[in-house]
Write a structure and sequence with these properties.
Elements (H helix, E strand, L loop, with lengths): L3 H14 L6 E3 L2 E16 L2 E5 L4 E6 L6 E2 L4 E5 L4 H31 L6 H34 L1 E3 L4 E6 L6 E2 L4 E7 L3 E7 L1 H6 L5 E6 L2 E10 L10 E7 L11 E13 L7 E3 L2 E8 L2 E7 L1 E4 L2 E4 L8 E3 L4
Antiparallel strand pairs: 1-21, 2-11, 2-15, 3-10, 4-6, 4-9, 5-8, 6-7, 8-10, 11-14, 12-13, 12-15, 13-14, 16-17, 17-18, 17-21, 19-20
């Protein structure tokens, strides 16, 4: 009876001549350079629907779809309506309330400083009046802050440097609260969504750099998110990759051919040592308890099986009946 080491050595030597003539096969990992060719969809890194937060009539618009804008630039103005007059009324009421507060505060201090001249009930009455005035002042101040905020919302501003992709309003139009007015796209960087094989999906991690050939232009992309949701028709999974390309160099929604070159470690299993079983593959492995049949996820390259993981590296396989 040969030792396991001797058997491995013998089978490896015979397999190097031709694995098809061996009853057993030693699985070895190997490094190689690989590439994938696919299509990617370009998106702006940030895309924002700018909605009106208050109802109002559109007085002026300053930009058209396709224009570049800077952060905080005014894109459109809404009618201020009665907000200015409401603000003046509230400011006068606030001033009157403060005067009343000052008056009753002085009355309260006089009564507290001369308790013999005033009853406890008179002191408590002043305290109650002063408390109500403070509550009234707080309500007025809240209303003023609300009006001032609404006045600021009549100016529709760009949230960041970008390009106006779409414009949904016209001068003279009445818009409702929540109505979309503009779609603005950031221009500094872009995102590309790729549909990749499960093997490549398992190979990479968030934050990894990818060297991407984009129509003859080489760029470095950063994987920002792996989306573990398989396409039922293709069996692929989405990757979102950040690119150092500006909107203008590429277009939002554009679909481009992509080549990705990368180094990978793989194992290859020749045809005599695996069998297809539905969407998976079967192999016979020599384990501690003897031969054991296991199922693998992988894909075919030519006639060889490329498993998605490297768990079989160093194991011995037995030929399997198809």
């Amino acid at each position: 009876m040969f030792s396991l080491h001797a058997r491995l050595t013998l089978f490896l030597w015979v397999w190097m001549l031709d694995p098809a003539y061996c009853e057993e096969f030693v699985v070895k990992a190997q490094n190689r350079q690989a590439q994938i060719q696919l299509y990617g969809k370009i998106e702006a890194l940030h895309a924002s629907n700018l909605a009106s937060e208050i109802p109002g009539k559109v007085l002026t618009t300053y930009f058209q779809a396709g224009d570049f804008v800077k952060k905080d630039q005014i894109l459109a103005k809404l009618d201020r309506g009665s907000l200015d007059s409401e603000l003046k009324i509230q400011e006068w009421e606030l001033k009157e309330t403060r005067l009343s507060e000052d008056y009753h505060q002085q009355r309260l201090e006089r009564r507290r400083s001369n308790p013999k001249a005033y009853t406890q009930e008179e002191i408590q009455t002043e305290e109650f009046t002063l408390g109500r005035l403070k509550i009234t002042r707080g309500k007025i101040q809240s209303r003023i802050a609300e009006i001032q905020r609404n006045l600021s919302l009549t100016l529709i501003k760009a949230p960041y440097d970008g390009v106006l992709s779409t414009k949904f309003l016209n001068i003279g139009e009445w818009v409702q609260r929540g109505q979309i007015l503009f779609l603005i796209l950031s221009i500094d960087k872009t995102m590309m969504e790729l549909e990749v094989s499960r093997r490549f999906f398992n190979l990479v991690q968030n934050g990894d750099l990818l060297e991407i050939d984009l129509q003859g232009r080489k760029v470095s992309g950063i994987i920002r998110s792996k989306i573990p949701k398989s396409n039922p028709n293709l069996g692929t999974l989405p990757l979102r990759v950040e690119l150092p390309l500006r909107i203008g160099e590429v277009s939002h929604g554009e679909i481009l051919p992509v080549t990705i070159r990368y180094d990978e470690k793989i194992i290859q299993i020749p045809p005599p040592y695996f069998a297809v079983s539905g969407k998976t593959f079967r192999v016979m492995v020599f384990g501690k308890e003897g031969l054991e049949e296991i199922s693998l996820d992988g894909q075919l390259e030519g006639s060889n099986l490329i498993p998605f993981d490297l768990d079989l590296a160093g194991q011995v396989l037995q030929k399997i009946e198809k």
